[in-house]
Fold this sequence. Notes:
Two copies of one chain form a homodimer.
Chain A: H1 22-42, H2 49-58, H3 65-76, H4 83-106, E1 110-111, E2 114-115, H5 117-144, H6 147-170, H7 178-203, H8 208-232, H9 238-241, H10 247-250, H11 256-264, H12 267-279, H13 284-296, H14 299-317, H15 325-340
Helix pairs in contact in A: 1-3, 1-4, 1-15, 2-5, 3-4, 3-7, 4-5, 4-6, 4-7, 6-7, 7-8, 8-14, 8-15, 11-14, 14-15
Amino acid sequence: MSGVVVPLKGEQSGKVKTASVEPLVELVRPDMERVNRLILSKCGSDIELIPEVARHLIDSGGKRLRPMLTIAAAAMCGYKGDHHVTLAASVEFMHTATLLHDDVVDESDLRRGKLAARMLWGNQASVLVGDFLLGQAFRMMVEAGSLQALDVLSHAATVIAEGEVLQLSTAKNLDTTQDEYMQVVKAKTAALFAAATEVGPILAGSGKAVTSAFRSYGNNLGLAFQLIDDALDYGGNAKTLGKNVGDDFREGKVTLPVLLCYRRGNDAERNFWREAIEHGKNDSSRLEEAMRLMHEHNALGDTLERARQYCELAQDALATFEDTPHKAALIEVLEYSLLRAN
Amino acid sequence: MSGVVVPLKGEQSGKVKTASVEPLVELVRPDMERVNRLILSKCGSDIELIPEVARHLIDSGGKRLRPMLTIAAAAMCGYKGDHHVTLAASVEFMHTATLLHDDVVDESDLRRGKLAARMLWGNQASVLVGDFLLGQAFRMMVEAGSLQALDVLSHAATVIAEGEVLQLSTAKNLDTTQDEYMQVVKAKTAALFAAATEVGPILAGSGKAVTSAFRSYGNNLGLAFQLIDDALDYGGNAKTLGKNVGDDFREGKVTLPVLLCYRRGNDAERNFWREAIEHGKNDSSRLEEAMRLMHEHNALGDTLERARQYCELAQDALATFEDTPHKAALIEVLEYSLLRAN
């Protein structure tokens, strides 16, 4: 898969890439420490099972990219209060709740390289602790006191659920069009990235032009993020992924690389994909064949090229803002995301 | 089961009981028509499966008692705006979302006398459409614009989830104490009744004394409501219940009548309950035996006596308010609830 990433505009090609998420992590570190403390305290409940299940996932080393976006966007817009910490924690709770419900819906065994909560405590606890965390997320939004932010985040909650429902109908369905697939990605992944980023400037009292720009950054980063994840599933390694290469294949997930391969293949190949995705013929020799077909049709390369275009849109969205360390860090996250797939 | 209901204070015993929910229904009818239209419009989504699943439950003839409480409480406190309609719809959506998730958690086959949504569309759709409705509920709360009402309702959302999780640990556990059981009922049922009623005066701008009084009415009605439901499961008929007599027994649910019978029984009886609740020995001859034991230990009578006491607390909570048709209707709901079990 080397060589498939085309650099973002304005970068010298041939330059050694060292883009990293570290500058962002450093800039938001003090606030993220407060976010992390808040997250732990809001997992608490007299009902012992709740913190147990919640912390299983929360301690499992997610990158907390979404809350970092809230913190960075608020700081970049000059916000001086404390509510960005509250909203950042609330965004992470929304995300965690979604993961708990997702695992039940997808019948997944693993999450971030650990057994999924549902494997340890059952589907029941996953559904209910997800509901609890969603409730806590809304309580924190109420605490933050911004009706505009509440509007953005509660809207995102419905859009995410719509995306997940839409995904049920595209699941194992190779007739899904690329448009339909991107609609799922926009709803189930990009909506929360967009909302998480937008609430930063909202807290800062920024006007429509600024909130829209940040929303656009978040939305496009979210789209790219999911496509990169789709590509990595056929080419990454378990350590980077927090899941195993081929998980999507074994679960019969229809993702962009699969759709590209399916449409570009001949009849025999399309038959191979139907057997694999729709009828569960997905042993390791078939995974190898799938990866060979991906290579032949440049499906991973084209998926990542699509991701690169979304990253450019995200970069453009921030173009008119003053150059600051926060802006540079947010741009570097885009580059890092693309490099992670390389 | 006749004769077990002791009339509320101030009623002449021996008088023929004609208490009904109709006076409340009549008073709130115009507003409830708006609530019902709003509910239907907010079920809408471009994703077809969502209105399909949501309407299956929403059209299934629930009494909509909770939103009626919001409407009546707002009217009784002199509220003149439109947001009580929005919050009433939002309360019903929270309730519907809970039912969808409940059916998955309980693995129930029936709901309100129809096949549960999960039996028709699978657990996946039930989880996700529940999430969608919860998101819509929050969006409507945001529309209503009262941070205080948002605080009350979002708090209720977390308490309900806590109650459901607590219920997992009491499920099929005959060592559950009555206190523990009532804690579950308070969280999973009474919390939403309390919040639904409290947001009425909150919208009207009433002070603490008034909002607390309405909250107390809702909370105690909710506690009574659940206990009456528990008793009816061993003595009602499928038409009144929307479920079959003995459903709780067959699902191995530990409810107050069961706990009373278990504690009051001899060793042989306690063994019978263990076999029935913990080991699924619950055929129809055993259900008959269970009902015989309930009679012997006056378990249903005492459960309903407990419900009657909660209804008195609810009545007391409204005692200091001026006598109005709304107040009379809310008191009559208490009497009706007790009579329904007679």
